[in-house]
């Protein structure tokens, strides 16, 4: 947009960062450079623009708008309460609602031909499926229209100087040094911005989930559009989400290694269509061009990222996948990243300067990011296995009954994550306490406790904060 911050100063051919520049910057320099214009980068830029900051938003890729499929990412993303809070604060919520699809639960299609639907909430509240490309275009348009924000594509950040701070940016015409006051790294799991922090002693762990996925489109005319559908086998997973066009966006997850079904088996010569049909006969019979899609659809891996430091003094912070890329199975990666941006903005408003604000941001977010990352990884086991299969059936039934009998005390894990803004770490802790209670009750009274009358189960369940151990409470 016109009137935004400049791209900084031209460097020499060597493109090295200069030293000794004042932190106030020149008139044409941006206040903040946001590295990465995926989903969280524009959100961070919008929050900063509301504070009057001059923001330069950079991305190494070409502008994806107007080129369907240019993003190369999952066709759908899930929006829950945390994401809606951010979009509403930025004035974009109503626009997104116009093309979001409500989902009231997930439907497991079992091998015996039966199905089992699990509601996302006990009171019928939905989560929302949104086409990623459409949401991305909206966020980019909003950022570009915001006063003081400049969006630049085909700008590859080569390095970040955390102290000056400044960035070495590769453009089509050569290297450019961009000087600013603060840098936000929103450049994903393979973050160049994070590398600058690692060079200063931060410890990172980047590893691939031993799974890969392919996106498969299907008509899905026989499927209920009010739910997400999945076909669990224990070894592989196929899921399908409705999109506004009336079709469904499907995703096949398989192991990278090991025996069939796996991508290693396909690479060794097994027919991918044969493997898919054996595991997922129902959708296989309904997708006319399945063989062609399996042959053409690229495989994508899922990187997992942990970093023990997110900020540097008052100059630098990481957000989103750059500091906590997670497995996609809870549908919270984007929601968590949006919450990062909102929390950072809140800390900037509350604290006396960027240094205290960045420290407060990291303190508030790291434990929550660790928690939802763990929960997301764990949820894959839930999604790949039919309901209650592979778990203690008495424990599963007892959990369901306790949730029904004590709705204010016991809230299902997914519901707490999706329909509240409670910290993920608090949600995980509450879930651990719930599981501990269930185990203690079964240990004391046996599996028969899961099928006793409501009144007896109420009597055997200790108060919310028992002053004595479960083992000594009541009798069966």
Automatic annotation (TrEMBL):
The keyword NADP applies. It comes from the Bacteria. Residues 31-200, 314-372 form the FAD-binding domain. Keywords: FAD, Flavoprotein, Monooxygenase, NADP, Oxidoreductase. One of its GO terms (molecular function) is kynurenine 3-monooxygenase activity. Gene3D superfamilies: FAD/NAD(P)-binding domain. Pfam families: FAD_binding_3. Its cofactor is FAD. The keyword Chaperone does not apply. Residues 1-25 are annotated as: Disordered. GO terms for biological process: kynurenine metabolic process. This is Putative FAD-dependent oxidoreductase. It comes from Streptomyces clavuligerus.
């Amino acid at each position: 947009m016109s009137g935004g911050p400049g791209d900084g100063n031209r460097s020499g051919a060597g493109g090295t960062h200069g030293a000794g520049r004042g932190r106030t910057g020149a008139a044409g320099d941006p206040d903040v450079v946001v590295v990465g214009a995926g989903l969280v980068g524009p959100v961070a830029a919008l929050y900063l623009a509301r504070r009057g900051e001059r923001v330069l938003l950079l991305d190494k890729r070409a502008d994806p708008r107007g080129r369907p499929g240019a993003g190369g990412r999952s066709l759908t993303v899930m929006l829950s309460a945390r994401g809606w809070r951010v979009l509403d604060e930025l004035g974009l919520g109503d626009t997104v609602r116009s093309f979001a699809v409500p989902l009231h639960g997930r439907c497991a299609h079992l091998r015996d031909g039966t199905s089992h639907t699990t509601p996302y909430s006990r009171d019928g509240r939905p989560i929302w499926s949104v086409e990623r490309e459409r949401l991305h275009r909206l966020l980019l348009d909003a950022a570009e229209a915001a006063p003081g924000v400049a969006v630049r594509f085909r700008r590859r950040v080569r390095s970040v100087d955390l102290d000056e701070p400044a960035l070495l940016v590769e453009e089509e015409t050569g290297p450019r040094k961009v000087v600013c006051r603060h840098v936000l790294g929103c450049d994903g799991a393979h973050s160049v911005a994070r590398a600058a922090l690692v060079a200063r002693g931060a410890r990172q762990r980047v590893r691939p989930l031993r799974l890969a996925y392919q996106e498969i489109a299907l008509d899905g005319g026989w499927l209920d559009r009010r739910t997400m559908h999945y076909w669990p086998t224990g070894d592989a997973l196929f899921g399908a989400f409705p999109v506004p066009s009336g079709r469904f966006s499907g995703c096949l997850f398989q192991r990278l290694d090991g025996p069939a079904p796996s991508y290693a088996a396909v690479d060794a010569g097994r027919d991918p269509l044969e493997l898919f049909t054996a595991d997922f006969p129902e959708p296989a019979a309904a997708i006319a061009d399945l063989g062609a899609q399996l042959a053409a659809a690229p495989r994508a891996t899922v990187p997992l990222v942990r970093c023990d430091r997110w900020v540097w003094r008052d100059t630098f912070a990481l957000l989103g996948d750059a500091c906590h890329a997670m497995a996609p199975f809870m549908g919270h990666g984007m929601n968590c990243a949006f919450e990062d941006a909102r929390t950072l903005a809140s800390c900037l408003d509350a604290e006396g300067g960027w240094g205290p604000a960045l420290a407060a941001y990291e303190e508030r977010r790291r434990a929550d990011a660790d928690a939802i990352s763990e929960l997301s990884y764990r949820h894959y086991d839930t999604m790949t296995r039919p309901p209650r299969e592979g778990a203690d059936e008495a424990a599963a039934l007892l959990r369901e009954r306790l949730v029904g009998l004590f709705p204010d005390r016991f809230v299902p894990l997914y519901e707490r994550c999706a329909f509240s803004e409670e910290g993920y770490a608090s949600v995980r802790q509450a879930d651990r306490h719930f599981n501990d209670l269930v185990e203690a009750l079964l240990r004391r009274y046996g599996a028969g406790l899961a099928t006793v009358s409501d009144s007896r189960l109420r009597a055997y369940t200790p108060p919310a904060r028992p002053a004595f151990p479960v083992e000594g409470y009541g009798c069966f």
